[in-house]
Amino acid sequence: MTSWNHTVVTYFQFLPFSTIPEIQGSLFCLVLFMYLSTLVGNMLIIVITMVDAALHSPMYFFLKNLSFLEIGYTTSTIPKMLVNFLAKRKGISFLGCATQMYAFSLLGITECCLLAAMAYDRYVAICHPLHYMTMMSWNKCFLLSVLSWLIGVLVALGQTTSIFTLPYCGPNRINHFFCDLLPLLKLACVDTYKNEITTYIIAVLFIMVPFLLIVVSYVQILHTIFKIPSAEGKRKTFSTCSSHLVVVTLFYGSGIATYLRPKAFYSSSSNKLLSLSYTLMSPMMNPLIYSLRNKEVKQALKRLITKPGLELHPLIQWLSRASQETPHFRNWLKNCDLGAMIRPLTVCPFDSSQMKPTEGTERGNHSLLTKFVLSGLSNHPELQHLLFFTFCLIYTITIIGNLLIFMVTVHPTLRMPMYFFLRVLSFLDISTASIIVPRMLINFLSEDRSISYIGCATQLYCVIFLAATECYILAAMAYDRYVAICHPLRYAIIMNSRVCLSLVLLSCCSGNVVSVVQTAWVFTLPFCGPQKINYFFCDIPPLIMLSCTDTSLYEKQIIMATVLVIFTPFCLILVSYACIISSILKISSLEGRHKIFSTCSSHLTVVTLYYASGTLIYLRPKSSNSQDTKKFLALIYTTIIPTLNPLIYSLRNKDVKGVLIKMIHELRKI
Do 277 and 249 form a contact (C-beta atoms < 8 A)? Predict the structure, then answer.
């Protein structure tokens, strides 16, 4: 490879968090405990704010988003750190490093903006209480949240691009536990002065500007509080924003100390500790801060724990009897929602009663319905608890299986494009299941199965985005197999890290465009009633049936879009496999054919399952439509396929099985 090539370094190596080998096992256990505490704590915050009607306010809508960000924030760095505690070769691929940095930057910048939005919410609540519901409407909350995410996406994309277009010729040892800006800049083999200036400017703009907005908000809040005559009134008013203030102090304190301190005070060891404080300590502490310092959350938690017992199905009566002496565990088990941690943008309904048009609402208003009601999978009450535990188990297996695939494929021996795409596929499967199953689990136990208008639109957008993106990712994986089998000598050149990253970004952008257009088409229709969706999530066909206008034109547009989304990548997959089969048939030995075809058999199985269920749902004739059949088919691609994918790729792949066995042996040594 010549010296002008900027991709001489194909992977980076992390230096150990500690140079003392004897404490690696202890550090692994400590960080794992803190990471699990972070997941459980933030998941609990999301569950409480979703289930308890008293917490259906803008403040707790933002808190749900914050908890989701904290989970994503830690998950982008800590699992790799845990793997490195056990691995002998503590490395990460060039593409994996770029992906980690992008995810970390995206979630960090989004959290900065979201904390500013939460400060604005507290400012309006305290300084303009009479106008609070008008100024902080659900639409405005949703827009503030989306704006925070959009800023995070743009800034993260710009920063990641500027860092990874630099030439890295060696050394490749990162003195950190994740791919961060400052340690990476040190490894570039050119002058990085301009990049450092750009990094500082971005840090000032997107760390200090939201921070200044928070400061201005709290100056106004304090000014208003000082006008209250009684000390008790001042204390009560300030207590509504004290939790947020503590979280802001922890997050911004460590962030500013890491990225905006002078070079003279920079030290790799102190930088690691500061990074650990805002990547792990802050996310772990936030649920405690918001539960211990917030009476409403504590009361909601108490109501959740002391909720009256539910009549369990006979098959699980033994579980209830076994936990009689641990009532807190029993009540938690009955009310737990294992998937809510990944579903941030759910807006809860204003009222659980049947909605009626209010005075001043005209019939022509297209937003007459403010909520929908999901009918669910079954109307038989005696099956609800059995279904709850069944899908709770399926969802848990989906999360564990795909996370395991994610952790296994970051192993040094699996640093190939095929496994990079597999990691992306696992992330999409986790997200698809998490958008649908948590809400379904809540509806199994709740009498109120309503979902707000904005919540339904958000769910539909996410489902379409993830499904369309997965279609394109499966096509990219087919192209990868085509290059590997038909052009093996040029594989490393054709499928380089930039091409792989470009294919993933193109898939996400295509999915986003399709999702925005289709969601906009559906939710510009007038919905005047009825409000009951005969489905277990917000999907296009059942929503169109509720519209009070002629939808024939919309149906034609949606069918055309579906054909483009499903059949365009499917045709690319067919062309790829036609070329692959042609190349395989040219091989003389039967054993050689078998070995080569086995490298793409897992992908072919996943494609068959995914496209078959999608085609049967969205492209079969209306005359053959049966709602129960459609529910069953939708279950296949939203819950069953994400559960089966890790099994298909692990049981049918020797490399994955080999690395998994190695990891198990490493764990046994601790």
Answer: no
Contact (Cβ atoms closer than 8 angstroms) between residue 18 and residue 27: yes
Tokens read off for 491: 């594989």
DSSP 8-state class, residue 640? I
Q: Quote the CA–CA distance of 20 and 36 in Å, as a whole number.
A: 24
φ, ψ of residue 142 to 5 degrees: the values are -65, -45
Q: What 3-state DSSP class applies to 509? A: helix
Question: Cα–Cα distance between 463 and 468 in angstroms, integer?
Answer: 8
Residue 201, amino acid: I
Both structure tokens of 405:
């695939």
**Which range has the top average pLDDT, 42-56, 65-79, 468-482, 563-577?**
468-482
DSSP secondary structure letter of residue 206: I
Strand (E) or helix (H) holding 373: strand 371-374
Instruction: Give whichever of 54-58, 355-359, 445-449, 554-558 has the largest mean pLDDT.
Output: 54-58
Helix orientation angle between 231-259 and 268-276, rounded to the nearest 10 degrees: 140
DSSP 343: -
| φ, ψ dihedrals at 133, nearest 5° | -70, -25
Helix spans in 362-416 (H): 384-408
pLDDT tens digits, 455-493: 888 888 888 889 889 989 999 999 999 999 999 899 888
Q: What angle do CA 517, 520, 523 make, to 5 degrees?
A: 150
Q: Report the percent of the chain where pLDDT is more than 90.
A: 3
CB-based contacts of 461, cutoff 8 Å, min separation 6: 515, 516, 519
- Antiparallel, parallel or unpaired: β 173-174 and 11-14: parallel
State how far the Cα of 284 lies from the Cα of 70, in Å rounded to an integer: 8
Residue count of the chain: 670
For the beta carbon of residue 305, count every other beta carbon within 10 angstroms: 13
Gap between the Cα atoms of 93 and 180, Å rounded? 14
d(CA 666, CA 438): 34
Pairing of strands 371-374, 450-452: antiparallel
Neighbours of 663 (CB within 10 A): 17
State the virtual CA torsion across 231, 252, 301, 438 in degrees, nearest 10: 150
| 402 SS3 class | helix
Both structure tokens of 404: 């395991």
* Placement of tokens 């509504």 in the chain: 240
123-156: per-residue pLDDT in tens? Answer: 999 998 888 888 888 888 888 988 898 888 888 8
Mean pLDDT to the nearest integer, 266-271: 63
Arithmetic mean of pLDDT, 298-322: 50
List the beta bridge partners of residue 173.
13
The DSSP call for residue 207 is: I
Residues 313-342: b if buried by 16+ CB within 10 A, e if exposed:
eeeeeeeeeebeeeeeebbebbbbbbbbbb
Q: What is the pLDDT of residue 434?
A: 87
H helices then E strands: how many in the chain? 26, 6
Across the chain, what does the average pLDDT equal? 77
Separation CA 483–CA 485 (nearest Å)? 6
The answer to whether the CB of 44 falls within 8 A of the CB of 337 is no
Give CA–CA dist 38/192, Å, rounded.
Answer: 36
Query: What is the 8-class DSSP label of residue 204?
Result: I
For residue 511, give both structure tokens: 């999915």
